Amino acid sequence: MELRDLDNAAAFCELVGAPHLLTYLGLTEEVDPAEARAKLKSRRKFMQGMQANPKYRREALFLIKHFSSLSTVLEDGPAYLRDVRRRTESEHLPVLEMTVRGVLAGGGLGAQQEAYLRHNALSLGVSEETFREVLERIADEMQISLEGDPLSHAPSSQDLYKLLGVDPRATPVEVVDAYGHRIAELQPGDPERERLALAKEVLSNEESRRHYDLTTARTGPPARTRETVRPTQPRLEAPGGVSRLELLGDPVRTLSLRADPAEATIQLRNGGTGSMGGRAEADVPWLIVTPDQLDPSAAEQQILVRLDRGALTDEATAGVVTIETERGERASVVFELQRGPTAGNVIGLLAFMLLIFLFVAGLVLQM
C-alpha cells in the first residue's frame, strides 16, 4: 500500500461523502479483507452500467479508474483505518485546539466541561489519546491546572465575547474589527494581547465558535442551574441596585418531536437588587422564544420556547437560546431534539401489518 493509494481512497470518499471505504460499502470495520474487496468488485461491476447516469457518473468514473488503488487499501483494513483517522484528526485539530483554548481561558476545567470537550473531539473523529494530548499540552502552555473547579476562580472578564466587547450575535467580520480596535489600545508585550488573539481565533471560526457556545452553555455554575424555583413575585427595587441573572433548571433540555405542542419553559431569577432588562434569542429559526424581552421589574420570570415544525430541517439536532441582560450578563440553554416515529410512520406500519395479516389469513382459508 502506497501513499498514492491512500490519497486516492481519501479523494474517493470525499467525492461520495463517506467517512471511509468500509462505510461506503456498507461493511463494519472488522470485516474480512477478502469480503471487502469482493464487495468493492461487485460495486465496480454495478457502476460500469451507471456511467451514463448523471447522478452516478463521477462516482462510477473514479471507481473504475482507481479501482486498483481502492482494492489495495482494503487488503490491510487496520492500516487503512489508521490513515483515515490521522487525516480526520489533522483536519479537525485546529478547531479542537481553539475550542479547548476558549474554555480554558475561563481559568480551569471542570469534569462536565472536560466530558463535553471529549464528546466534541470524538464526534469530530479525534481519538481519545489525541484529545488528552491536546488538552494537556494547551493547559501546560496556558499554565492552567486541570484539577479542581474552575468556577471558583475563573475571572468573569475571560468570557470571550466580553473580552472583545462584542455582542454574542456578532459576525466574524465584526469580531475581527473589534479585535483590531482592542489591540490598538494595548502596548506591545501586554499579556492581554494573547487573550484577545485567542478570542478572535475562536469567535471568528464558525465551528469552533459553535463548540465554545455549546460548551459554556452546558457548564454554567451549579448554583444557577439546580436551585428550587420559587413563586414569581414583583421585585422591590433598591435605588442604585445591581441585578444578577440566574438560570434555574438544567442548561440542557430535550424537545421531543412526538410531543404536541413541543415546548419548554426557561425559568429566570434576578438575584440582585436592581432592575434586569434584556432579551432572549434563539440561534436557529425553528425555536420560537416568547417573550423575547425580559421584564425589568420581575424577581422571577418564565420564557416559553416552542418548536416551529414548519421551519425544522432533517439535519437539525440542537439549538441554543441565549438570554442577555442590559448589563451584559449571559445565560444559555441548549435544546436537543429527540426524534421518534411520526404519526405517518405509525399509520403506515399498522397498514403494512394489516396487509400481512390479511395475506396470511387468505393463505389459511385456501388450505
Please characterize this protein's 3D structure.
The structure is a single chain. The chain is α+β, with helices and mostly antiparallel strands and 367 residues long. It folds into three domains: 3-75; 98-218, Helix Hairpins, CATH 1.10.287.110; 223-338, Immunoglobulin-like. 47% of the residues lie in helices and 14% in strands. The protein contains 13 helices and eight strands. The protein has a four-stranded antiparallel sheet, with no helix packed on it. It is globular, with a radius of gyration of 27 Å. The model is unreliable at 149-157 and 219-239 (pLDDT under 50).
Poorly predicted sequence stretches spanning 5 or more consecutive residues: 149-157, 219-239
| Overall CATH architecture of the largest domain | Orthogonal Bundle
Strand tally: 8
Query: On the 0-100 scale, what is the average pLDDT?
Result: 78
Give a short synopsis of this structure.
By secondary structure, this protein is of the alpha+beta class. It contains 13 helices and eight strands. 47% of the residues lie in helices and 14% in strands.
What's the layout of helices and strands?
Blueprint (H helix, E strand, L loop, with lengths): L2 H14 L4 H4 L8 H16 L8 H9 L1 H7 L3 H28 L6 H13 L4 H14 L18 H5 L7 H13 L7 H12 L2 H13 L26 E4 L3 E5 L6 E8 L7 E5 L4 E4 L9 E8 L10 E8 L4 E9 L4 H24 L1
Parallel strand pairs: 2-8
Antiparallel strand pairs: 1-3, 3-6, 4-7, 5-6, 7-8
